[in-house]
Specification:
This protein has 275 residues and is of the alpha/beta class. 25% of the residues lie in helices and 33% in strands. The protein has 2 domains: 52 residues, Spermidine Synthase, Chain: A, domain 2 (Roll); 217 residues, Vaccinia Virus protein VP39 (Rossmann fold, 3-Layer(aba) Sandwich). The strands form 2 sheets. It has a 7-stranded mixed beta sheet, sandwiched between helices. The chain has a 5-stranded antiparallel beta sheet with strand order 1-2-3-4-5. A hairpin with a 2-residue loop joins strand 4 and strand 5. It is globular and about 55 Å long.
């Protein structure tokens, strides 16, 4: 008998993957958590039946949500990741030699436990001495840590359930206040095909708070539509003014100096969302 996992990506669209083996399932206080091994994408983490990450394509998402911002900042030292319990963003962040401390704030500790056991390629940096892992509410954390971080990464699930509060102007204002004087934040902001109402609202909220606001894109096959957006809010530094000839070699598979520049080149249908 064949076993498939099927995600309702929208009310009109599903993606299905044939499962080789179910590795883990539990109901946490926050969500239903599963790890399965699929034939197409390898091991896959799902929360409430929504694909969060896979071994096959996670590098695109994790490299883009971290390196674009970190390479825009001169010498980032303290970095915060909200969500991202799989550890992929942390893995990329500590590739930067200037980073002295990377703090992960994940509301559901069971996600961290599952990632360490079943996704070691992604979670491999969570035990690094520069990394602090806190099982806590990210919204509360930024409220309580003013002027603390050089960069904040909002590596959240979709804007439903525990993550809903991470997609609003009040939260972005708290993020602004938690950043140092020339700090940057980057958030995943969903699909320009299927979240056409959400992206303009986020862009408007962020641009009303940060002097520099940029939208950029990456391609993640298992996310709805494949094309995925990220929004950056910066107090001072513009990623379009980075001298890409001076960017370090970070042993990446998707991000590159050239991608740093071209990811901000938006197709006309995405540009229309920001007008």
């Amino acid at each position: 008998m064949e076993l498939w996992v099927t995600e309702m990506q929208t009310k009109d669209l599903t993606i299905g993957c044939r499962v080789a083996k179910t590795l883990h399932y539990e109901e946490t206080p926050y969500q239903k958590l599963a790890v399965v091994d699929t034939h197409q994408f390898g091991r896959m983490l799902l929360l409430d039946s929504i694909i969060q990450t896979t071994i096959a394509d996670e590098f695109v998402y994790h490299e883009m949500i971290t390196h674009v911002g970190l390479n825009t900042l001169p010498n980032p030292r303290r970095v915060l990741v909200i969500g991202g319990g799989d550890g992929g963003s942390i893995r990329e962040i500590i590739k930067h030699k200037s980073v002295e401390k990377a703090t992960l704030v994940e509301i559901d500790g069971k996600v961290v436990e599952a990632a360490k056991k079943y996704l070691p390629e992604i979670s491999c940096a969570l035990d690094d001495p520069r990394v602090e892992v806190l099982v806590a509410d990210g919204i509360r954390h930024v409220k309580e840590h003013k002027n603390t971080y050089d960069m904040i990464v909002v590596d959240s699930t979709d804007p439903i359930g525990p993550a809903e509060g991470l997609f609003g102007a009040a939260f972005y204002k708290d993020v602004h206040d938690a950043l140092t004087g020339d700090g940057i934040f980057v958030a995943q902001t969903e699909s320009p095909f299927f979240n056409r109402d959400l992206i303009p609202r986020i862009y408007k909220d962020v641009s009303g708070i940060f002097p520099v606001t940029r939208l950029f894109l990456g391609n993640v096959p298992t996310y709805p539509g494949g094309l995925w957006s990220f929004t950056m809010g910066s107090k001072k530094h513009d990623p379009l003014k980075v001298d890409i000839s001076k960017l370090p070699d970070l042993n990446t598979r998707y991000y590159s100096p050239e991608i740093h520049r071209t990811c901000f080149v938006l197709p006309p249908f995405v540009q229309e969302l920001l007008k």
